[in-house]
């Protein structure tokens, strides 16, 4: 563990610490006061704490009678005891550990101590302000589709809402010859972000753009990363500084970028985190090699494998609903649950997905990460805490318990080519649709089919998880339901698309004389309940990275376990040359998916 050496000042009336922010002031307009920086840091911490520990933190706030946003040192005392890691820190009275917590330093990531002469903290945490480390975010592959359409807009939305520290700098990096101004114009031109109609947006955008710089990598990432490092260092000075590197590059370029980055672009004055995009490898072996190379240079805790589909509220609700409601928690097992359906379908055709879908196909692109992570979060045992590692410990057990999938329980589909051109998917047999029945061989889920279905170019956008419960044993009302026993099945539906909702199907009496039963839905429609704009999932996940919260990012052992589930299927598909069933755009997808569900005693109940 790296030791953080800090110069401690005696007591009252401390001189303001030398802030990285001061170095940003020439580009950022007037220097921002320590108070403001502290307030922003507090707000970020508080936002996160409220999101994750809601009422606990809220109660503490009320008890302390603090205003809307308390001072950062007070927030630390409100949130600092929430995770196991922080419990240890809070229990340890040494100034070093406490100070590193306030600085946002994660010991295992902070390879080197913060420089003694640059950083001044204070011995009384309840009364004294703290220094806010600067943050540099580099978007590698800045000219690509993902960076332009998703990453920069998400960064700006976070900046707009004050979720990035005041002393932040953004770097775009690619091999094209561009100037800062070109990058800024590109960001501005592609800003489809949700805050563009909000108050002061233009002002904020100008501020944001002034903090944005371009680094031309040339044709060699070794030189490129050295250049990036020196540009960042110039801005950071020698103060405490953290860095995030978003690797928005094709899989083939990942190591070409990541290895020089590890050698030359990491800060020695804080933590470094890298974000890696899906799909995570083409084969189990190639993925393993990439992982080994990454782990030879980075610590596991530094690596964030991002799948933006996991940044939806639907996914967080999986655990919130189960673990915070007594009416659901006891039902979460084979005893009450008959089957689980995970559906992710899109109207858009794979043609419109751009290069990133390419030859990878839907199994590597969507099933490997999104679907298997959803199942893992759904089916895991209660984690010890909300700490990322505790959750990942439980997810990996689920992935390792998934039974080898029988190829007879797999349906592949491919969108018919309507362009008249040679169909690149047909040529490569790349599936654009996948359905399967999976089983988890453990005590909780033994015998429960998990039916998954995902495809492009279908009749509607749908992302939902449906949980069908067993029929009531010896139901005394059975005669009132008619012949279709499925009609009285209780069902819980968590939905992201077509619109966010949580629905519970229950049986009730039809009004009037006589006793007739009906199946109705108790609806929680987010649109009606909450008058808020939903942040893009990239915003959510970027904030998690900033916060060091890893629970929605696949750890290397999860990645390997997911490959163990899918590699045999991919291998058998290749070996037997299993041809995908063609389906029309805007249709329901392959008919075989319906036979598959019936074989496992399930009826898709999803409208498509
Ligand atoms: N597009 C999307 O919405 C999504 C993309 N992804 C994933 O994100 C990654 C990027 O996708 P996308 O933006 O579509 O790809 P693009 O091809 O549009 O962009 C790739 C970017 O990487 C840069 N690049 C390529 N090779 C290198 C290299 N060796 N060194 C440095 N820079 C390099 C390119 O710039 P230059 O050639 O100038 O260096 C370009 O800026 C992929 O892994 C993809 O699977 C995941 C989900 C969604
Ligand atoms: O990663 C992917 O996500 C997109 C859907 O993104 P969203 O922001 O519209 O939710 C999907 O179209 C693509 O196939 C997939 O690779």
Label this structure with key terms.
17% strand, binds NADPH dihydro-nicotinamide-adenine-dinucleotide phosphate, alpha/beta, 608 residues, nine-stranded mixed sheet, glucose metabolism, disordered N terminus, binds the ligand O=C1O[C@H](COP(=O)(O)O)[C@@H](O)[C@H](O)[C@H]1O
Structure write-up:
The protein has 608 residues and is α/β, with parallel strands linked by helices. Among the domains are: 135-277, 3-Layer(aba) Sandwich (Rossmann fold), CATH 3.40.50; 310-535 and 555-600, Dihydrodipicolinate Reductase, domain 2. It is 38% helix and 17% strand. It has 19 helices and 17 strands. It has helices at residues 20-28, 34-64, 72-79, 84-91, 95-102, 145-160, 180-189, 201-210, 221-236, 254-264, 284-297, 313-323, 361-379, 388-401, 424-428, 526-529, 537-547, 556-575, 592-599; strands spanning 7-9, 120-122, 134-140, 168-174, 212-216, 241-247, 272-277, 303-306, 337-345, 410-415, 433-438, 450-455, 462-469, 491-497, 501-509, 517-525, 581-583. Helix 10 (254-264) runs parallel beside helix 11 (284-297). The termini are far apart. Mean pLDDT is 81; it is low at 1-42, 59-108 and 110-130. Bound molecules: NADPH dihydro-nicotinamide-adenine-dinucleotide phosphate and the ligand O=C1O[C@H](COP(=O)(O)O)[C@@H](O)[C@H](O)[C@H]1O.
